[in-house]
Every structure is written in C-alpha cells, then in structure tokens.
Design goal:
Blueprint lengths: L1 H19 L6 H14 L23 H4 L1 H23 L3 H22 L4
Helix pairs in contact: 1-2, 2-4, 4-5
Length: 120
C-alpha cells in the first residue's frame, strides 16, 4: 500500500511536468514536481523490500526485481541519472530543455516498467 501510494504521487508529479511542458508553464508547479521526482530517485529499492512481491498478494511488481537485483539497480540508476537534467531545466526556466529532459526521464521509467512491472 505504501509503495503504491509512493508511485501514485510520482505519477502525479509526472502529470504536472507533462501538463506544464506545453504552452505556458507554471514554473512553481514544475519546480515542486521536479524536486519531488528528484527525491523519488533516491534509494528506490526501499519501496521493494523482500517479501513484497507476488507472494505477498496483489502487485504488478515482477519477481525479477528480487531475482535480478543488479538489473533492477541498473534500471533505477538510469532513473536517478536522468532526473537532474529535469531539475536543471526547470531551474533555468527552459521549456524546450524541460520537454527533452521529461522525455528522457520517461524513457527510464518505461525501461523499468517494461522489465520489472506486469501489465494491467
């Protein structure tokens, strides 16, 4: 439940960035969302303690998170490595750079979802 709520919040932050990467950006909202996303990149494994996979009940988290920890760490590192570009673009109030950083960050999310998250 806590993991689900964490990722719901992260999804809301991504929606804020997406919505503000078109037209006239709300820079204050972008700054708050980018900071939250950056914070979410720290220690992603904390959201996946042993025993919280499919054996624990309903979850879309695949067992590969725990059986292939090096690959999962690499996917999380990609997310962590790409987040600072979004923060920097927002701080610079560079809408084009925000869009580019958002797409690259989204690619990191997709990579993890494709490999470690079951479809709905």
């Amino acid at each position: 439940k806590i993991r689900h709520e964490h990722y719901e919040k992260l999804g809301d932050d991504f929606k804020t960035v997406r919505d503000n990467s078109r037209g006239s950006p709300d820079w204050a909202a972008l700054e708050k969302a980018a900071a939250s996303i950056q914070e979410a990149t720290v220690n992603q494994m904390q959201w996946f303690p042993k025993g919280t996979g499919p054996e624990a009940g309903k979850t879309r988290a695949l067992p590969e998170i725990w059986s292939k920890p090096a690959e999962f760490d690499a996917a999380q590192k990609m997310f962590a490595d790409r987040a600072p570009a979004l923060t920097a673009a927002v701080k610079a109030k560079d809408a084009d750079a925000v869009g580019k950083a958002f797409r690259e960050l989204g690619g990191a999310c997709k990579n993890c979802h494709d490999n470690f998250r079951a479809p709905e």
